[in-house]
Design a protein that fits this description.
2 domains; four-stranded antiparallel sheet; GMP Synthetase, Chain A, domain 3; Rossmann fold
Length: 395
């Protein structure tokens, strides 16, 4: 089949998938990675048009002999923040796979998890999160409220199934918050500096996969072999470029900190926006957040934070913003030059739940930008533009 990537870069790419290797990969992952047996009920709360929907609503569960659930709606407001728990209870779901965005929305509407207690979740064993970086606060909240393992994992439209995961079927490893687990068979994951040299363990760099790619990955882009090579293979010869930045620790766990475009350079210091977002989301009043780098005449770039507050928060917004700035200064340090937070109603996202940081950055920097093809609600970008203007940013 051919599936187009969500196009956060503004130019979607047609990922080609051949059948044999993909079938083998998906069948193997269902039991070994997701820990689900034939005959059980598996639910990927995703969009069928997105790679997760292809791999884990349609092909994976059905190849493995599982019942697969198709769900249309949102995790909140259809009719309430207990929608997911109702579906799990009614259908005896053993494993749910969704985006961290969904859980941040639920946590924002039901911070105490009061809806969870209303449903029988006795068959529910494991929660899997992927699609956006799963911040530790969201994972801890889900662990405490659901009392099941919460497994973050990492992959791309291009790979078709997880590159790294904490494999529920093979035996769960110790959880490391902020890490989407360890490499799966066939994925020889390395971290390189911009010159293509491997960096030491624990050092931030470009996350790449040593060729050849394993079963299930793309062989090329539709009608664009040259673009395929340019996008993925040319920059680091002998490696596939994931375009994610991260590091591998001494135990072999991967940490994906940001897209390589989201590493910002503040006065010569390379800083991860993902690390700053982790701090923002630790504030008790914050439901969701995003950090982008904006142009600065003195420092090259400085970070700008956006926060969406939990439902029912009545405290002074200015005080909350000051506390968030203080948290970043305390945990990352003055070097981050993190001084500005803007409170907004919602973040702009693709239909698959990815935050459109690149578009937000262009708005803040007064650059030309095009409406991303996969945006969920275009009106959000007007709201962001207005909020920035009120603060004198991007005028």
């Amino acid at each position: 089949y051919i599936i187009y990537t969500s196009g956060t870069t503004g130019q979607p790419k047609g990922i080609v998938r051949d059948n044999g290797g993909h079938m083998v990969a998906l069948k193997w992952t269902m039991e070994n990675e997701f820990g689900v047996k034939p005959g059980e009920v598996f639910w990927a709360a995703s969009d069928v048009g997105w790679v997760v929907g292809h791999s884990y609503i349609v092909y994976g569960p059905l190849l493995h002999g599982c019942t697969s659930i198709l769900f249309e709606g949102k995790p909140v407001g259809t009719p309430d923040a207990g929608t997911y728990w109702r579906v799990i209870a009614e259908h005896g779901v053993v494993a749910l796979f969704t985006a961290p965005t969904a859980f941040r929305a639920i946590k924002g509407q039901d911070p105490k998890g009061e809806f969870i207690a209303k449903y029988d979740l006795s068959k529910f064993r494991t929660l899997f999160l992927a699609g956006e970086r799963a911040d530790p606060e969201t994972i801890k909240w889900a662990e405490q409220k659901l009392n099941v393992p919460v497994v973050d994992h990492w992959w791309q439209t291009e790979t078709g199934s997880p590159m790294t995961i904490n494999p529920a079927g093979l035996g769960l490893l110790p959880v490391k918050y902020g890490s989407p687990g360890v490499p799966m068979p066939g994925y020889d994951i390395r971290v390189l500096d911009d010159a293509g040299h491997e960096v030491q363990r624990g050092t931030l760099g470009n996350v790449v996969i040593k060729l050849p790619l394993p079963a299930g990955c793309l062989p090329t882009l539709w009608n664009a072999d040259q673009r395929f090579r340019q996008a993925y293979l040319d920059e680091f010869p002998g490696f596939y470029k994931t375009a994610d930045a991260g590091m591998v620790d001494e135990d072999g766990y991967l940490y994906v900190m940001a897209r390589t475009d989201d590493i910002i350079n503040v006065a010569g210091h390379r800083l991860s926006t993902g690390a700053m977002e982790e701090v923002l989301s630790a504030h008790p009043d914050v439901a969701e957040c995003a950090v982008i780098g904006i142009a600065d005449a003195m420092k090259g770039q400085v970070p700008l934070g956006f926060v969406v507050l939990n439902a029912g928060v009545t405290r002074d917004i200015g005080s909350i913003e000051n506390e968030v700035v203080g948290l970043v200064r305390e945990r990352i340090g003055p070097v981050a030059a993190f001084k500005t937070v803007v409170t907004i109603k919602r973040l702009p996202k693709t239909r698959s739940g990815k935050i459109l940081r690149g578009t937000m950055q262009k708005i803040a920097d007064k650059e030309e930008w095009t409406m991303p093809a996969t945006i969920d609600d275009p009106v959000v970008l007007d709201e962001i533009t207005k909020a920035l203007k009120e603060r004198g940013i991007g005028l």
